Amino acid sequence: MRENPVEVATGALVVLIAVGFLVYAAQFAGGSGVRAASYPLTASFRSAEGVTVGTDVRLAGVSIGTVTGLALNPETYRADTLFAIDDGVRLPEDTSIAVASEGLLGGTFIEVLPGGSPFDIDPGGEIEDTQSAVSLITLLLRFVTGSEG
User: Which of 50, 52, 47 is nearest to 78 (CA)?
Assistant: First the structure.
């Protein structure tokens, strides 16, 4: 049985490309999701629909952190969320945070809206002003039925 050199070269190229994709994917999927130099913050949402561990936290469209924990609080029935925020980003005390969407078919992310306070949130602090996820289905039903609430 003779090997065709073109088939061998094509097979080797396919294997190299596959390895490249695996290395690329491992860079983004590996680890605990905690950034190297970061500090923790928490927030509590009425609805964190679409948010998972690893969801981006963005300020002005730039990723400044990631969601590192998400759990239901059995006492308040709210979604308690833990974030890792880059050390170089200090947020004012009156910062608000919202669950946002990239569009109709886009993914979900956490949008940070900084306030104007001269004092920063301490590491481990809580962002108290939160806006929950808005359900597209609920909005469409309200529009179709003409209901206000």
Answer: 47
Domain that holds residue 2: 1-30
Question: What mean pLDDT comes out for the span 75-86?
Answer: 91
Q: What does the alpha-carbon distance between residue 115 and residue 1 come to, in Å, rounded to a whole number? A: 73
How far CA 76 is from CA of 71, 119, 138, in Å, comes to 12, 28, 23
The secondary element (H helix, E strand) that includes residue 47 is none
Q: How many domains does the chain have?
A: 2
> Tell me: the pLDDT tens digits for 21-34?
777 666 655 444 45
Q: Give yes or no: residues 70 and 89 share one domain.
A: yes
Question: Same domain, yes or no, for 97 and 49?
Answer: yes
The label of the residue with tokens 């590996």 reads: 30
Q: How far apart are CA 86 and CA 48, in angstroms?
A: 22
CA distance 2 to 4: 6
Same domain (yes/no): 12, 68: no
CA distance 12 to 7: 9
